Amino acid sequence: MAHQVRAVVVREQGAPASVETVLVPDPGPGEVLVRVSSCGVCRTDLDHREVGGDAPFPVLLGHEAAGVVEAVGAGVTRVAPDDFVALNWRTACGSCRSCRRGRLWGCRAVRRADRPMTLPDGTPLSPVLGVGGFAEKTLVAEAQCVRIDPVVSPVVAGLLGCGVMAGFGAAVHTGGVGRGDSIAVIGCDGVGLAAVAGARVAGARRIVAVDADGRRLDLAERFGATGTVDSSRIDAVDGIRSLTGGLGADVVVDAVGTARTYRQACYARDLNGVVVLAAAPAPEATVELPLGDVFGRGGSLRASWHGDFLPSRDVPALLDLYLQGRFDLRAFLGEKIALDDVETALGRMRFGGDVLRPVVLM
To answer: In the chain, which end has fewer C-beta atoms inside a 10 angstrom radius, N or C?
Structure first.
């Protein structure tokens, strides 16, 4: 039986998002039907509206979602009806080379539901990152569900589906920032702020936030930055060095992803420091660095693919930190909106907009 629900759909590239009727099938083998409680509005949704993604239009937007399991298909054992779950797009297949070596966070396989959600005329929809969370109900693969304590608010649980974990993981997992280290974060959007907050949890001694927007720098201080650099007035590299004793930072996270910010990150690190590229660059972007400088500074240049995030490990860990009062997930929350307000929220995001996450409540 198909479930008729309201959902946010983009029919063609660049078209506005609209709330439409969508048909969601009952779960097949290995699939889970989830009644969505909340879903954050992420820049990735805007990207899928503007330039498309890994699947054809029309697309069903939304991917930072949490909800309650309504039904499960044959063979599903990880979750059961009435379980409260956070949804994610990162899954580990368990059989590729990375998984066999115990590096499940490096798996590039993505499990998704086999049965399509459709428009009433039968046109199949492409759910963003295999989730499609801007819908009253969605169909996902079992591996996309992480069961969590129902004491956690849905608006908080859904935040762990993308941006927060990408930033936290860039600093903690990929960058390896630890107690007593110094870190600089270039770009204080949602990912950058999560990197700042993650560094504070990890015990970093100095946390330098860099941005050209003073409002974002004010937010970065709330999230744990010990110093800020306004790159509209001060050279970013000089500013970072002045706040790290003239040495540069042990870890520098580039949360912008341009050739300019990446070069800044490379020259703002201390000897044997780590540079982490935490934002997806434009496909045509290139950067030139003298190999002598790369060799002479030592350390490493790393790319963080979604914060080296492993949902089964990291969602419960971050929620534990939140419940202990050590990681304030609520600080990332912006306004609470309805499905009908998603297009407006995406429009604000397109033109700079707020850094904090608008969250759709069903």
So the answer is: N
